[in-house]
Amino acid sequence: MRKLIIIGSGGHAAELYEYILFQNQISTREQIEVIGFIDDDPKMYGHYGFEEPFLGTIKEHVVNPEIEYLMGIANLKYRKEIIESFEKQNAKFTGFIHPTALIARSAEIHPTVVISHNASVGPKVRISAHNILNSRCTIGHDSVLGMYNFISPQVAIAGNTTIGTGNLIGTNACTIPGVHIGSHSKIGAGAVVIKNVPDHVTVVGNMAKILERK
């Protein structure tokens, strides 16, 4: 049986927890045991009624190299900082692919990636570490995703799209084939991206336009 600790106890952690429970219910393969949760906001832990214990704060946690860690904080800034801090302490991170996700055989997916229910990943897609693919999103064939991207629910990434590092792609946003999105940018909900997007910008609308630059 795999054993893991979930970092965070808010909304994203609660969704991951439900995914694990669902897999354990339907799977005849190896089960996953959630040892507990760590969070710097102990009050958040009680909101979702987890059965597993609260194990203390993130800042004071002593990494256990024998147990896997699943990142349950979606905020890109804190997510990256915490992961890098834990990795320096030899933490072993894992991801999770929901049983209902459709994954092409030729897709290359880093083991720390989270793929939610009813998502789709096409042929020859390459997804780097610590990405989150939310429910019902689609990553088209031959697309490439760098690290630490947050792909919101029902996003449609067309084939041959390239996405850099640390981007937030809003709900129902989409791209046309061959578009390049840089790094550390925000694509607004419902945006239709038909041109390349540079680094450190926010784009919104149909057709998507730059709203601001950082």
What order do the helices and strands come in, and which of them pair?
Layout: E1 2-7, H1 11-26, E2 32-38, H2 42-45, E3 68-71, H3 76-88, E4 92-93, E5 96-97, E6 102-103, E7 108-109, E8 114-115, E9 120-121, E10 126-127, E11 132-133, E12 138-139, E13 144-145, E14 150-151, E15 156-157, E16 162-163, E17 168-169, E18 174-175, E19 180-181, E20 186-187, E21 192-193, E22 201-204, E23 209-213
Parallel strand pairs: 1-2, 1-3, 3-4, 5-8, 6-9, 7-10, 8-11, 9-12, 10-13, 11-14, 12-15, 13-16, 14-17, 16-19, 17-20, 18-21, 20-22
Antiparallel strand pairs: 22-23
Main beta sheet: strand number and arrangement?
Answer: 8 strands, mixed
Shape: globular
Radius of gyration: 17 Å
Q: What percent of residues adopt helix (DSSP H or I)?
A: 10-25%
What share of residues are in beta strands? 25-35%
- Can you give the mean pLDDT? 95
N-to-C terminal Cα separation, in Å? Answer: 46 Å
Spatial strand sequence of the major β-sheet: 5-8-11-14-17-20-22-23
Sequence stretches where pLDDT stays below 50 over 5 or more residues: none
Describe this protein with a few key phrases.
five-stranded parallel β-sheet; globular; 214 residues; alpha/beta
Structure description:
Helices cover 15% and strands 29% of the residues. The chain contains three helices and 23 strands. It has helices spanning 11-26, 42-45, 76-88; strands at residues 2-7, 32-38, 68-71, 92-93, 96-97, 102-103, 108-109, 114-115, 120-121, 126-127, 132-133, 138-139, 144-145, 150-151, 156-157, 162-163, 168-169, 174-175, 180-181, 186-187, 192-193, 201-204, 209-213. The strands form five sheets. It has an eight-stranded mixed β-sheet with strand order 5-8-11-14-17-20-22-23, covered by helices on one side. A five-stranded parallel β-sheet has the order 7-10-13-16-19, with no helix packed on it. The chain has a four-stranded parallel β-sheet with strand order 2-1-3-4, sandwiched between helices. The longest helix has 16 residues, at 11-26. The radius of gyration is 17 Å and the shape is globular.
